[in-house]
Backbone:
């Protein structure tokens, strides 16, 4: 819009300068032709065509002096684009100014406006660059903040799991041992007891202690099972290996059942061991997907296959047994790298 405003002002000044010397149809024609040249120059990106058009206009202005009044507009356009043809326009205007001094104000105004517009565009570009840099910096800050929050959540999760394990261990080591000792003491009292009236009471006490012991054991197992986080455990297994490069794409949207969780952890651990020991792969992919009715786990490397294994070893047989015990299917391929594909119904 700024450039259009400049051109309108220049057209008014040039038309006024021309009206002092010449009026009539020739001035209107010259103005229309200059408008056509400027419009073509604004919309055509080809530099050579622009230069040719400007040279044609300069030649026409020498043939028909009426066009010289609008030469400052052509000069403004080329100065704005920083092209050498602007110098030719200036020289042509200067030459004609000896005969037509009235075009000097328009030529000087054209130069000033072109310099002003050029500087304006330069500062505008700097502003947009700074704005873009600011947006990228804000995006980097946002991503860093999300990463920190994610890491913080992970740290809290790991700390929570560690605390659960500590509580389970305390219960097992302290309360569990005390109950075990109490059960043994009751058993010893039953042996040495001679009073038949006390025998029934001791039996009831032993049943109560046995029931408490079973409840403690169940609670400890439940706490330990919940303390085993699938993603944390798998990442821990991955971190044990510097080579090959291992990526884990976890597509879980909910929690795995205890049986499936331990099955997948065991399969991943055995698969990574086989890859490191027997394959020449430098990249391993672990992909877990959750579908409405089933889970799918794929472990694949880019090696030339597992070498040195005749048939299926104990590790691979254990994988099959674990998966099939849960009603799942497992497919193990040694072609085009080592690949395990497992499907287990929810």
Residues:
């Amino acid at each position: 819009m700024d450039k259009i405003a400049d051109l309108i002002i220049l057209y008014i000044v040039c038309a006024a300068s021309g009206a002092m010397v010449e009026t009539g149809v020739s001035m209107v024609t010259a103005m229309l032709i200059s408008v056509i040249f400027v419009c073509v120059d604004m919309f055509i990106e080809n530099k050579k065509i622009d230069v040719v058009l400007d040279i044609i206009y300069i030649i026409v202005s020498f043939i028909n002096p009426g066009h010289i009044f609008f030469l400052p507009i052509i000069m403004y356009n080329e100065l704005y684009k920083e092209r050498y043809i602007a110098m030719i326009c200036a020289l042509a205007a200067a030459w004609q100014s000896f005969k037509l001094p009235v075009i000097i104000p328009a030529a000087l105004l054209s130069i000033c406006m072109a310099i002003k517009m050029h500087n304006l565009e330069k500062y505008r570009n700097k502003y947009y660059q700074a704005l873009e840099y600011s947006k990228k910096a804000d995006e980097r800050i946002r991503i860093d903040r999300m990463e920190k929050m994610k890491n913080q959540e992970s740290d809290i999760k790991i700390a929570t799991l560690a605390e659960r394990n500590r509580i389970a261990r305390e219960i097992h080591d302290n309360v569990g041992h005390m109950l075990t000792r109490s059960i043994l003491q009751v058993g010893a009292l039953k042996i040495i007891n001679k009073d038949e009236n006390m025998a029934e009471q001791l039996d009831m006490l032993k049943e109560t202690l046995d029931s408490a012991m079973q409840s403690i054991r169940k609670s400890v197992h439940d706490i330990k099972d919940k303390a085993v986080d699938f993603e944390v455990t798998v990442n821990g297994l991955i971190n044990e290996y510097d080579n090959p490069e291992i990526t884990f794409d976890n597509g879980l949207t909910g929690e795995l059942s205890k049986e499936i969780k331990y099955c997948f952890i065991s399969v991943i651990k055995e698969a990574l061991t086989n890859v490191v020991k027997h394959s020449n792969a430098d990249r391993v992919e672990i992909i877990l997907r959750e579908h409405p009715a089933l889970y799918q786990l794929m472990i694949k490397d880019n090696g030339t296959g597992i070498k040195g294994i005749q048939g299926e070893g104990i590790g691979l047989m254990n994988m099959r047994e674990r998966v099939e015990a849960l009603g799942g299917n497992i497919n193990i391929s040694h072609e085009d790298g080592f690949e395990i594909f497992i499907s287990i119904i929810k």
